[in-house]
Each structure stands twice: as C-alpha cells, then as structure tokens.
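Our platform keeps sequence and structure together, in a single record for each protein. Such a record has a labelled line for the sequence and another for the backbone structure tokens. The tokens are whole numbers drawn from a learned vocabulary of local backbone shapes. The remainder of this section carries one protein's record, kept here as part of the documentation:
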Amino acid sequence: MPKIVTVDQMRTIEAAADRAGVTYAQLMENAGRAVAQATLARLTDAPAHRVLVLCGSGNNGGDGLVAAHYLAEAGCAVSVYLASAARRDQSQLPAGSGPRTAH
C-alpha cells in the first residue's frame, strides 16, 4: 500500500493542526476512534469477535490504544500487545520482567 504522506509531511500536518487549536491528544483520539469505527463497520456482531491490537511505543501506538478502547466499548473481546525495543539498562526492572524469548 503506498504511503499517502511521508513522516515529515505528517509532522507538518500535525504541527499545523496544533497551531490551529487541535491538540495532539485530540488527533490521537480522532485517529483511534476512526480505526475502531472502520473495524466495527466490517464486523457483523462485535461481541462475537476477538480483536488483537498491536501497538508500538510511538504515537501510532497511542492511536491503537484508543482504538482498542472503542472496540472494547462496542463489545469486542480486545487484547492489546504493547511492543517496544528492550531498554539497554534494565537494572531498575523487577526480577523476571525483562525481555523473554521462546524456547
């Protein structure tokens, strides 16, 4: 699927929206709600569906969390997987909470 805008163009669009009074939080809310609505439009019976939302650590991950909220609110059984790169310094993490690998 071709990109509609580049990363730099999106940053410019978001900054312009922010200057116009639309906060980044509102942009995230709008994006997440739109994803949930598009998903729900494709489901015939939301409560009968299990949905997995994969979220990274960036702003799109926030969009995914908002979408997950709306999907759960509509009755879907929602699971969210938050993925991010492991931190180099894990000394502050409780024992056993670091990255895990499958055996």
Remarks:
- The chain has a mean pLDDT of 85.
- The longest strand covers residues 50-55.
- Strands lie at 50-55, 77-82.
- The chain is about 45% helix and 10% strand.
